[in-house]
Queue: 3 jobs
Job 1
Amino acid sequence: MMDLSGVWNVELLGEGKFVKKKGTVNIPGAVQEQGYGREITKDTEWVSGLHNTFWYERSEYSYAQEHGTNVPFLAQPPFVFNGLARYQRKVSIKEQGEYFLFIEITRWKVKAYVDGVLKGEIVSLVAPFEFNLGKLDVGEHIITVEADTSMQYPYRPDGHGVSDALGASWNGMGGEVSLLTRAEYEKKAADRRKYAAKHKREICVEDGKFFVDGEPTYFRGTHYGGDHPLTALPDTTGEYYRKMLRTIKKYGFNFVRCHSYCPPDAMFQAADEEDVYILVECDMWNVFNDGIEMNDVLKAETERILKAFGHHPSFVLFSPSNEPGGGWHNVLREWVAYARETDKKLGYEHRRLYTAQSGWHYDTIPQETTGTDFLYLHKTNFGELGGGIVRGPQGWNGRDYNSSIEGAKIPCMCHELGQWCVYPDFGVIDKFKGYLSPGLFKVFKQSAKAHGVLSMNETFTRCSGKRQMMFIKEDLEANYRTDGMYGYEYLDAHDYLGQGGALIGFLDAFWDSKGYVTEDEFKEICSETVILTRLRSYVYKNTESISTSIEVCHFGKEDLTDVDVFWELKEKYGEHTHIAGGVMSVSRIPKGGNTKVGRIERGLSNVKKSGLFVLEMSIRKRKEIIAKNHWDISIFVKDNTESKAFFTRDVTEAEDALKRGMSVVFCPFLSDMDYDCPGLSFRNSFWNAQMGPNWVRSMGLVTDSAHPAFQGFPTEEYGGWEWDDILSSARGIQIPPEIKCIARPIDDWNRNYSLGLIFEAKVHKGKLLFVSANLEGNFDDRPAAYALKKSLLSYAASDAFSPKQKIDFSIVSDHIAPLYKGFDIISEISMPGFEPDTPIKENEGFMAMADINPNTSCFVKNLKLPARIKIELTYPVAVTGIRYLAPQSDRHFLGVIKDYRLYGKNSDGKEKLLSEGTLKNCFEEQKIECNAFETDILYLEVLSTYGRGKTVRYRKEREGWFREEREDPQYLQVAELNIMFTGDIPVRHNDLRFWRGRSARHTEEIDD
């Protein structure tokens, strides 16, 4: 073998400005990491279809742009280049003969030349590149390699084999680059066959279950998309993969799904050594239809993968594509048969199973689905759960997804489970010491600093992480409880750096712990043996009973025989007072499924004080603990005492009382706060708020859990299940960050609002306790809300209520803006000459601009500017302006108003210019203000919008995804127009969760 690593000459071909275009590079290596390519600017074209092209117009991404461009949707390489690079070097042949050029890693369309003569061309994203150079004479020869990384086929630009999302668009050569003799070349193939013979593997499906080497197996996996933050090219030493695999094994996982990606041999080898299973997806996230070229490309890539890596025992699961488009059903069922036959021809029969795709439902119900060895999806389009879902909250609280896969004759695995975000720990920035720069983290960090919340970073990460683990626990346990589910892929145990930054891992992008969950804690819900319950709730009244079954999901190597199942309900903190407990002796828990081992039926009348409790369970054989699990529970005792605290929901009443020196609990109606006070949610954001934007962007809660205001409402620092009902009917008020909160919501890192939920302060002559949650209702129906309200009122009436901080009441009152007042005055909105194109039926034409719900928008296509929005009022009033809200739920923020004029019609029918100006491209509510003007007709004239100009889009067609340069049609999109006017009129108030209607998204990837 002749090692060709070292210095090569290189030239980048193509037009345009290069920082460096010609010179030398070290191989293995990529040109971008060695100073070649183009500088990154706001106009850089990225290989991605999942970001806002005009991101730089958005206010929230204006941060950290002083010293070069930092993009907010990925970790960026030092330079960008997608195109043709020519590499050359001399070689000296000592012995005449037939030679092969072997390049372990390169991409995409690669040609090999000897002395200027073309010797071969390969177009691939998978497996080593092997070129037969023919007979070479003794002496010096020039080897030329041309690697063209531009789009060779109509791939979706978001597949991890091609996308910039995780840094896949490098141009270079990696791993072994060598000249091989015929004998050396053939030895590589022979070594693979010998390895397979020595490392046998057999996987099959029997009775609807997976069996690996005869043992029933449950696949507990996480995601990997080929990211290497410190190096441009994938690791070929195995060091990176060994760290990754050893880490996830410590947390209980046993398999890795390679999303639209095929890793190099080093990962398979590491997985063999660490006994971790791998699922491969052919580097594809593509369109498949009968008779198109992509079907042949898929077959060619499949053959390369199986030939290069089929000998590895870790490679047990194979899929053609993530979330395929088009009429894929028959095409990819045929692929299953093709892949199986290819394996057989290679001598690798029965070493792996095949699924027809990853993600979507089939064209048949589960019990009739054929042509695939297993179902790997997140919904089946069947059953009583919406869309036949097999992940998420519909299976929580002791439930399951049985109805979604009822009757399935083959095993099911859940695709992309658990995408719950965690607020970023900006300390990770210091770890980016290699190829990728943390542009997105730099933007978010500066945003946090500008909004005054950066000092809370550590607390935000810890509390949002603790909350995330609650949901991951629910997701995994629901999966285990479901008959026919024998696996899941958790997306993701480590943070995902693309698509806006999906910070969903309990490990950071470098596979290091974030510190809020230990290995042992996570293994309670991710291991061969998991104890399960079917608790219907985690919030109880002491007048109720805990009634639940105990189940064990066991996939260990042996049956569990003669074991004891211990359970105990006790106080979580303090004295750990025992409430109830017991032991169940079980003669046998067979491996390979779920076993019901008993029930718990216990009343809670012996609980005399509201508190936090924990239900602990363990399986023991003599003194050995085989498995354990626990569930946090809140138990509330009704407080019948009456408080003398002054409670009001009216802002005027509140301020008058404060001026008189009273103690006031002010709780505004949910309808009475402006749009800068977003709705809250108990659940953390899903995937991320760039990909799935929403007015509600909760990331958890931070409470001062030891505060006397919580005396009757015990709570965790991070706000446990006791907040579920409360936060679903609450809003966060924007406050200066220096105000100390008793309960502070954590906002999404793209927006970084400084929010308050509960805080106290001296105001005027009095004392204010503010809370922006609907706490109405009785103890029987809303025990947690009832208890919190009682606790706050009791505290406000006590001597302990002595706020230290002083604020101006305007901090609160400036955000009180009864939204129904501004909505009810509107009788009609129209745009003469145009029709709305609203994506969801809940929107009623142009009135979607004033439907209260900020998550819905009126969307108008093919506008000619200037264009007018006509707003007719129910009767004349003294208009002082409009509260305007730009779209909140559209990833691309199409048609956001930029320049405007506002006119009002006089009583004599003439128009008067009331206001003109420029609006920001942002999430915040903006006021179009004017002097009071009596009118019943307004015209908002749109002069220009954001997002205009030529851009690159990827268009999905029957044959695949195609790049096109275009200027989008003129759009207009408005979330809310809310009229501001003077005058005393009756105003509606209520606590309806007006933001809960379906979001007006123009994208399909997010399913939360």
Note: The first strand starts at residue 2 and ends at 3.
Job 2
Amino acid sequence: MRELSCKALEPLFRGLNRKNLPASVLAEGIPYSLKHLTNRRERIEWSVYCRIIEKARQHFAPEDFEELGMVFGRSPYWTPVSIVARLLFTPMDCYHWLFSPQTVLRFFATCITPTATEMGDGRVRVTLRLEDGYEPCPEFFRLTKGALLEIPRAYGFAGARTTMSIMEREANYDIELPPTRSRLAVLRAVVGWPLLAWSAARHLKSAHEDLQRRYIELEEARDQLSRQATQLATVNTISQVVHRGLDLNDTLNALVDALVKVAGFSSAEVTLHSDMEGRPVERRVRKRVTLPGAEPIRTPLEVRGRALGLLDVCPRVGLRSDECQDLLNYLLPTLNMAIDNALTFTTVLDYRNNLERRVAERTAELAEARDHLTETVARLKDAQSVRERIFANINHEIRTPLSLITLAVAEIRKMPASNEPGVAAQLDIISANVRRLLDLVGDLLLLAAAREGKLRLRPVRQELGSLVRPIVDLWSSLAESHGLTLALRCCEEIHAEVDKAALERMVANFISNAVKFTPAGGRITVELRAEGPDQVRLEVADTGVGISPEVCTQLFERFVQGPPPVRPGHYGSGIGLSIVKELAEAHGGSVGVESLEGEGSQFFVILPRVRVAQAAALCEGRMVTVPPAFPEPLSVPTTPLSVVSPPNNVAEATVLVAEDDPGLLRAIVDVLRRQYRVLAAENGEQALRVAEQYRPDVLVTDIHMPNVDGLELIRRFRGSPGNRMAPVIVLTAFTDLGTRLSSFDAGAVDFVSKPFSPEELLARIRSQLAVRQMALRLHETEKMASIGVLSAGLAHEIRNPANVVANAVAPLKRLLPADLSNSSHPVGRLVDLLESNAQQMANLARDLLGFSSTGEATCRMEPLVPLIKEVSDRFADRLNGCQLRVNVDYLGDVWCQRPLLVQALYNIIDNAVYAAGETGEVRVAAGDENGKLVIDVGDTGPGVAPELRGKIFDPFFTTKPVGKGTGLGLTMAQMYLQRHGGQVSIIDRPCGAVFRLELPLKQQNEYASRTVAASLPRETRAS
């Protein structure tokens, strides 16, 4: 509540103005603006006034507040009071009127209770008391004292004498009025009475306007309260509807009726679009008819983001749209809640009514499911019988042809031709893979028998150390071949009832697994120890790559594999550890693994010392015995293949093969080496190094490989700038759709499944190379077009400075003395050389511009010997110890554009000089062969590697260090010769490199013009 009028702040602002201080110093930190505080029609709280007084104490002393009160008594705010006082009251009556509880001061400060008591003889006591609960403020009482002193002046008297006593919440003022006025003052008051009456009327008019404004504010407040009452009444009605019943139709009708009768809308309509348990609910309820010309207001109904329907209402006459919208916003939460509750109740009621039907339907479904389950169980039993028959016959059906293959191999070995190295190696591969197939079949039979409870065990009490030690010795040689240490730790004799073959198989599988995942230099430890009085623990620990916690939980399941092995070709089938688990459980024991990635693994089996009852039952009926396990499948790694060229040393392309199985890798290389230069890699990491060195034309890769798998290899291979045009063919046994899609996403373009036909692999490689060659040709065409634009631009840039140099040589020779300008003098020779080369640059730039713009070279017959001499003279100061030898057997002319042919020869000889080095030699030989001019440029340098011969003429390809070459010299030479109807190629030599230039000698004019014109667009030829 705002207890104090802002008129009380007027003396403070006047005092600040007299001190030349801004009024804003009192408004800082106050929750009212300065405009509000200086408006005499506004009000503030008493607590705010006290904070303002605290700020005023910083600028005014206590006695200053009494003086400010006197100024306030003279201010225009007291003018209406003084006028009324002069017209109606004596000074004593004025004190009683001003300080009665129901008059002016009470309106001025509602928290102050004033009283006035007449003491006789012109004396009066005024008491001001601050009501309880308000903060004391002595400065208010001091301001009031100053105002009390000025009241007699309104009657033309001198100021009153006042004595003030201030207590905590109360102030007493003893006022002594001045003597009565003189006759002259009375006469003056009588004469001025009409003016006082006019002034009183003017101030009464202003007070009337204030009262009117207050009345309007009260009317607005009353309207607001009326709207709130309507809102509350409507909400109350709706709440009663909600509590009275939850039927959906009754609720909707009651809501629409409340909106019309209570809320005062002229019409209301609810359209419901919802669902109950997936069934749609449609309702529409309307009340009254829309008045003509009324615009309906549509509002969506929703609860927690779920749409319920729409609400359409029309306001009554005289109701503003904003008031209508405010009322709707207030009512919507209650409306939505009522409709949602009714829908929920309807859903529950419907569910209760249909519960019996649903129970019957569910019972029928369960009966059908039971019958279906019974049928499924019967089918599973039949399938199990079929599987048993399959596994019973698989031994005969698979082992028989494998036995025949083994016998055939043995017979072939007796033949004389089997002693040849190639035949013997192939026979060894066949024998090894037959052994692998036989072992795999045995493992599958063993696993199936264990799952079906047909595993035959013969547990016998025996000392376990004597059983484990021979197995460790058997695997030691294989471990040593891989750079591993295999040791047995068994400190005491341990006896238990175990099956010998089963125990040997468990130990062998653990050791085989450890060898696969332990790098060279690692250690494998087999430990046998007692685990309490009734159990035995067999543990195989290694220092290998370790296993992630996620894989450890599934490692003993069938066909689950861990990380890639550290050695190529040693992938397993994912059933070895499953067999260990089945054998351990058949003994009544358990298996487990403890591993940390990068720190190794510990696989262990815990077996009971005495055979348990469940294990004893496995010795009855038709059973499958446990086959032995030997270390031969993990063969010693052979010497890896590197680079294999075709027999005739002429390769169609370079193929990189990445395969982790050494035998299969060698077989693929043997298939491809007939036509291609083959690069072999045993894993993805090695393949990346080989690709970086040789830049192959095709990559053939497996998917699952150690270190870097096939997918990562494909991504990194295609990401290398030099391999982006090389196709990738995936060769793998994983033929599922996911593997295919992953391969294509990584960048592969073809897919070959194992086992594969050599002819199919060769055909796919040929097809991909043909596509690659087409793409390279298109790419070459684009690059050559770019080079033409580049050469034209460069020629345009160098033509003007070259002409300036050429034109400046003649004046320079005239300025030189005669003896210096003579060609016999070194200065004269330098000037002649400057003139010759400047003219050559200008001619070359001019010819290039004309050639690029018209496409026609201005050719003429040029003698060959001076042309070659001009080129060789340019290298006189650039050989740096290298020897340049020229032998020209052809002394005739050649039809050419001299600057272009000179530049082509210069680029090729310059490349040879760089390759030969400071101590090398460059030989240039020219002659006529079968009507062609043949120019051979050879050097004694390192030569051109076979894998680079197809790339050295590519634009911007260079083997020179950064800053030594642009990669355009040989490209431009090839382009110049082709435009003259010639060509350039590389000739094989035992050492160094020989570039052969061939140009036609007959009908050169017609051929060159036709060749150049045909190479240009139709529009250019026409112009």
Note: The chain has a mean pLDDT of 76.
Job 3
Amino acid sequence: MQFTTQGVFAQNITADTTLANRYFAIADSLQTTRNYDSSIVYFTKAAKIYQLAEKWQKYLRCEGKNARILGKKRKYEEALQKADSVVTLSIEKLGNNNTGQAYALWVTGNVYASGKGKYDIGLKYLQKALLIQESILPHHYVDLSWSYYDIAHIYSRKSEYDKALEYYLKSLEIFKELLGEKHIRVADSYNKIGIVYWRKSEYDKALEYLFKSFEIKAELLGEKHVSVALSYNNIGVVCNEKSEYDKALEYHFKSLEIRKKLFGKKHTDVAASYNNIGIVYRAKSEYDKALEYYFKALEIKTELLGEKHVSVARSYNNIGFVYRFKSEYDKALEYYLKSLEIFKELLGEKHTLVAASYNNIGNVYSDKSEYDLALQYYQKAATACLWNFNDTTNIVSAPVIRDCLDWQELLQILQAKAKIFSDSIYSASQRSGISNYEIALQHYQACDTLINRVRKTINTKSDKIALGEKAAKVYGGAINVCIKLGSNYDDLSFYFCEKNKSAVLSASLAQANALQFAGLSDTLVELEKSLQTEIALYKQKLAEQPDSAKKVLSQSKLFDANRNYEALTATFENNYPEYYNLKHSTKQMTVSELQKILDKKTAMISYFVGDSTITIFTITYKDFQVHSMPKIRNLESFLKMFRGLLKKPTTSSVQIYKNLGHKLYKQLFPVQFSKIIENLIIIPDGTLSTVPFETLLTEKSITNTYESLPYLIKKYNISYAYSANLWYKQKASDKSKKQKTNSANYDLLALAPVFDDGNTASVSLRTRSMLANIDSIATDSLQTRGKLLNGKSVSALPGSEDECMKIFDLFKAKGASALVKIRRHANEEFVKSDTISQYKYIHIATHGFVNTWKPELSGIVLAQDSTINEDGILYSGEIYNLKLNADLVVLSACETGLGQMKKGEGVIGLTRALMYAGANNLIVSLWKVADKSTSDLMIDFYSNMLNDKKKDYSKSLQQAKLKMIGEGKFSHPYYWSPFVLIGRQ
């Protein structure tokens, strides 16, 4: 009888636990929808039943969930007490290391970190929870994923971004396996990873992840959802960082509209939108509007969060920033100091936000000319930004760069200190025994070390270029300090000048070299090329501003291709040590090494254009001179005016031309070369690269005829290079015979689509629309190779066929191998084939176009052959993926030497794409060129080159230009000067 009674009791408990399971499911659902009070009621009901049934694991889960909800309700002490009781009971009932214990520790960690802002304490509890979970749970288990996720979140808050990425990616892997790609948790993970990349200043990569997150959210949740609003907000933040202010405001106002509709006017999310809108207006220098939105945000935050909160401190910091730029320094200090006090209390001394506060206060004191106080705060800022640096008192000391919390903040801090010392406005020598300039130099060298480290971690070209723009200011300051320190520092000043030249191009060429010589299998190399081709395709499609559906598809495809490429690159770096060494080699040649490979007849001149000075480095095989002088006032406008004169073949402006041409020569050539010098290698900087130096006038002239003017081209053979270091590496590679192993088998390949029939000239609607937009930017009354469209077809270039055939005849007369592709045979499919790698000289006579806003849309027009699966335009991104083995590529087309101008990198266009593809030397144009004169120049150039035993491209081009000048018909620089030689000859 007793046995029977026990059996009946057991059945009742089973029925009760089934009900408890229902309660638990209801409670979980209510928690997801933030209905916290009702959720607690149902979790408590379920817990009582589980306790009666002695189902301790489920009971502890319910109590743990209640602790979690108390934390969400900001009842932090109650949450911690309940979590602690769960830990104690779980050990008592289930022994050490159980799931209830792990969950309660996880809750405790979240309360400390997210609720109370005590990240280190929170991290300690979360890592304890993770250790238990990893020891008892399957590898792919949802609780494990949440622990990875929350640990990543704390590392992100602590500005330890690489660790944050490590844990976010672990979490994402589990979420995707358990939930699939189209799930809100996966979207949230993409969002978090995007934020980390934003913090790392890798903005394009950040946008990839943020748009991927948005795509999933919009599909699953619809447009008017809090999570979609968050995506709009985050995309707006990154657009602001990219200086795309109108886009940023568009996304922020979309976010604000959704948040106000969902939450009303008083909510922390609404405050966040106000704050971010204020940030954009601040960036646009609309300070009163910025303050309006900042104060709206602050009012909501203080009411809902209280005074002592990180978000409130951020608002104080932002308000202080605006008052500083309004020159209301006392108000700025008031708000900055409030911000600093809260940050230090909640975050401790070692944190990015603390460093930013110290830095901001230092900036105000610097503006007030109170340099001693400024330096004290900058020093504290540096120590807050570096884990390994703790010298808060010795304001002249520069840190050793190791573990950095935020490289951008640290770079600003070190620059600010360096500027005070370099301006010699602080008597450091009284304290340190060394000069202000030496102290400034130490800080600039620390900046250089930091930049080198960051360059290795950034993957996308656009983010590397953005880094180069920031670095340019550092290197400009460093060069000025070296000049002030005297001639003993000339080598170092040249080092800094070179660090400001084409770093991204150099890195790309180093990577291409690594792919070739690191022993990678053909399969891996082909896979790398395939992914690069795919990436270029989708970048180009996005640059064409497709409709929303196509945009989402292209973004998704680009996202996947980029992730696959990153994984492949990681494989290369981990499994092929030589690849890593070749790719990341940072060795830079010295002046003495460069001099060893310069011949006696050659001088190299490198320029650095600063804010108020221009520094010119002149190097020959035995001399090295550095000249720094005041820059011509409004030099950029001056160059633009001179370039305008070059592009208009009229005689009416000859007097203006003579004045400008000689004035520019005096600015750019302070050194008189010895009579032995015949060749000049020019390394321009910034807008100097838009003007052919050949056109400068070496002396004042009384003549008014263009053929008799004293052009620089009449004295020297002239070529151009992107940087001395890149030129040196290529020349050294030639001399040591480590050039490409697959030497060209044939001599000339000439291509001329001509565009004089329907098969080669008729373009698709899509291509026509794009070309029409480019063509409308500038027109020319002459028959040029830049007038792209004639109605629905590409404009004919009748001179191009004659040009190619005459060049072909020149080669055949010398017994050289040559191939000409005319009309429909000069198509994109052929250019992309492996055949093109067999030619030493490649000549393309066609239309070219440059898009300075979107370099991806720069390209070369080929035959519009509808019978092949190509659009007839070889875009810049596609050129990168060609396999060239050409010693010389000539683009007998318009504006092929132009592109997007970026400080610290130079021109980004077709030329660097061709160099990456394998061209050693290039002849390209700087403006729209005339058809007949171009044809004459090219034929003469090849004739000279073929008759020269040394095959000296620079000399051959000079002779062709001098002939054109001397004959008179095309003596105006418009005709002969646009084509320039870039390369290593």
Note: Confidence is low (pLDDT under 50) at residues 1-13, 736-742, 777-784.
